Amino acid sequence: MTKTNPGNYFEDFAVGQVIEHATPRTVTEGDRALYGAIYPTRFALPSSAAFARAVGLDPHPVEELVAFHIAFGKTVPDISLNAVANLGYAECRFHRPVVPGDTLSTRSEVIGLKQNSNGRSGVVYVRSTATNHRGEVVIDWARWVMVHKRDAASPAPETVIPELAAAVAPEDLVVPPGMSFTAYDFAAAGEPHRLDDYEVGERIDHVDGVTITDAEHMMATRLWQNTAKVHFNTQARPDGNRLVYGGHVISLARALSFNGLANAQLLAAINAGSHVAPAFAGDTVYAWSEVLDRAETAVPGVGALRLRLVATKGRDESMTLRGEDGTYADGVLLDLDHWALVPR
Amino acid sequence: MTKTNPGNYFEDFAVGQVIEHATPRTVTEGDRALYGAIYPTRFALPSSAAFARAVGLDPHPVEELVAFHIAFGKTVPDISLNAVANLGYAECRFHRPVVPGDTLSTRSEVIGLKQNSNGRSGVVYVRSTATNHRGEVVIDWARWVMVHKRDAASPAPETVIPELAAAVAPEDLVVPPGMSFTAYDFAAAGEPHRLDDYEVGERIDHVDGVTITDAEHMMATRLWQNTAKVHFNTQARPDGNRLVYGGHVISLARALSFNGLANAQLLAAINAGSHVAPAFAGDTVYAWSEVLDRAETAVPGVGALRLRLVATKGRDESMTLRGEDGTYADGVLLDLDHWALVPR
Amino acid sequence: MTKTNPGNYFEDFAVGQVIEHATPRTVTEGDRALYGAIYPTRFALPSSAAFARAVGLDPHPVEELVAFHIAFGKTVPDISLNAVANLGYAECRFHRPVVPGDTLSTRSEVIGLKQNSNGRSGVVYVRSTATNHRGEVVIDWARWVMVHKRDAASPAPETVIPELAAAVAPEDLVVPPGMSFTAYDFAAAGEPHRLDDYEVGERIDHVDGVTITDAEHMMATRLWQNTAKVHFNTQARPDGNRLVYGGHVISLARALSFNGLANAQLLAAINAGSHVAPAFAGDTVYAWSEVLDRAETAVPGVGALRLRLVATKGRDESMTLRGEDGTYADGVLLDLDHWALVPR
């Protein structure tokens, strides 16, 4: 028993502690294919090596979420195996493209701690950094989770709550070196809309829906080496359902957003994210987006759209985020605030 | 709303119109692996790079249906998103092997139109051409679909019905340049039968059956970036079933046909195809073949078999295509007339 | 009908007979990705090309079980299509790593025959050898299966029962040439335990469980081109269930064993294996291990653990292999005796 990983409890974390997560993972063309089999993604850049080459990216990057899920998955055994809840993300930036052959590793630093008033759990804030095998940073992000204490009687640590930005500033978004949208092929990409065609406040109903199956969400989650029991084991929850990994809903919604946001080719940042309600096999997931902001980047021809991506269980053509009482509307599964790069 | 794709309606098509379909797609070894995970294929040539090299094909081609499904999938958002029915295929030729690294794009030309007498829909005929990133044609085919009109009151176009051949002539079949079957390894291929071992009129019961699951047909269909809602969304049909993509049944039947047609290594042409009945998860698919014709090709040692590949729901050892009234027998799902290349 | 493979019956086998199995198969990065999507594997060596390179293995090998399942699958159409039961394995050795691009073929020699007293079936012993496209042996193993007779009246062959070792001797284990664990990164591998940290007799409960789905076990089994009908066809068994391929349970259990045996990086041998009970979709599979022996190898720094890997339906924290009557305890699915290579 002592050789298996019980996961860390709240009192195992200390501010400033650095954890090197296990299992480096090499990304391959197999990951791209599986991602395309599990999510209805059609963005031209990750779909086509020729399109990517034409905008200056060679070798052919995989979608940012492939890298994110792999990098995130590594943190689960150390950070959130005993988590009660994933509370939030912030300051997630995609620093450079990930291509087949890259080996990703993740390290986390504890940047905040706050015991809950009930004394039985607490919130752990970490900043995680994924690097490739050349030691270059590919993604970093902050995340906070509520974690059980091993022993309610153990003393509370000093409360440290990190300052996290409400959104990544547009000037901090990274455009991959060498990328240019001057020769961008709108016909190949599937839609004619440029940065300036989107209005702040505009909402886009992405129309299509996908019904979840257990086999698909388990295959995706396993691909990322995410080990949280509730995703795989019908004996892990009283209701016998396998809880769908929140990242599965992110990827479903992002893929569905192609229909109306086909030119949002790359994710540049995730500003904030809430998994509002759990999803299970049999749920039909739809998505809508709201344009939150629009910005230029340092690279001519490349703009950035700040978008709220909302996944819902069942379609909500009214695209209602919150009810009159300010709480999320029924059916909302995900509220993801992010920046995407688009042609100007 | 205006940014999403509503698909084309009957009145949006005009004879001579050319549509460049979106989302070029690079084929990878991941596609080959997924194809082998989803279909019980065992043809030696696409399974083994060494076998392919020994018959003159290097790099290692993927199965023709991988390329076909990808090429076909691109046409769905523009041609058949509002289709009532896929009516037929003709004159489909495989012009050159597709190998990992090739990026495929598809273009369609409208070659015929005929409004239905009810005034609410019409038949659209297109010729679609898939090219690789070097601009070489890899597959072309004609297809006709029945499409809704947006407005029943809009005027009928002039009726144009293209002349399509009942079958591709043997002399028009393309044998991949450099391919030879003089060093063909029958033991590795799994069966000893050559062209002349098959008799016109002979029927082969392929024996094995596969029960469909929703996860598998969705993963396949998504891999081809086919976006037709009915395949993915239990809310898209009144019965709550996800309709299986017709191409999934084609690939299942083709893979099952290995048992008795192991040497039918490459598809050279599809002459005609009918999706006779819908298929759903839980259906068990079997296949049988009828030898329709036999031909030589320009390449010594390489022959061509014209085959009718029939998929059935449940096994029909009597291999009955049609009842006495001339309509398809109960249980027939697919009737696919094609040419395959075999050793002589 | 005569062109399809009816499989071999007991009287089709003769001691000394050699069968070249069909369908050579090239391993790709797609196989690695699918293996990781279907099994919760996290061993650092097959996950990371960088980790593999650091221990001297470049190019990046796939897991031994990927190669084993492919090699084994080739034997099914000739050896076990008419099998009543898989009775056992012995003397399975992994001779050299398999890397993407390798094409595997399998040959079997009949090494024993024993007709059953009922006269209707018999036991066939074969030694199978898988080679890569350079003709190098990658795996060999002995296996015995009970096979139906075509005709109960046909005469019994002379009984020949081969001598098979109870376990591969440690000095016969192959350490891949060039591999060294002197620069082994325990943090990346996920656990600190070395050879000497494991005690003979020690049992390790691997804690995690995975609930099987039909789509996943069929995809895996198809990937290995294993054609046994019972895995794919709900009409093949009276109960309408699809029997899970025994190798699927092996791979699930091996992957689950990461938690406690993270440094058991490579399989070196399978000494014996019993598929104790059938598994079906809906079963939740857990695993535990018992340390049977510990040995050095010829390579400094590389040790070998002889392990009993037990898969169970539902978790058995008592880790009971057999009841007082000596028969396997309820819930035991698999009992696999093998050698794994670990750092010293």
TrEMBL record, chains A, B, C:
- InterPro entries, A to Z: HotDog_dom_sf, MC_hydratase, MCH/BMMD, Thiol_ester_hydratase_Rv0216
Q: Which Pfam families match?
A: MC_hydratase
Give the signal peptide, or none: none
Kindly give the PANTHER family that the UniProt entry links to this protein: BETA-METHYLMALYL-COA DEHYDRATASE, MONOAMINE OXIDASE-RELATED
Query: Could you tell me what this protein is called?
Result: MaoC family dehydratase
Which species is this UniProt entry from? Answer: Nocardioides panacihumi
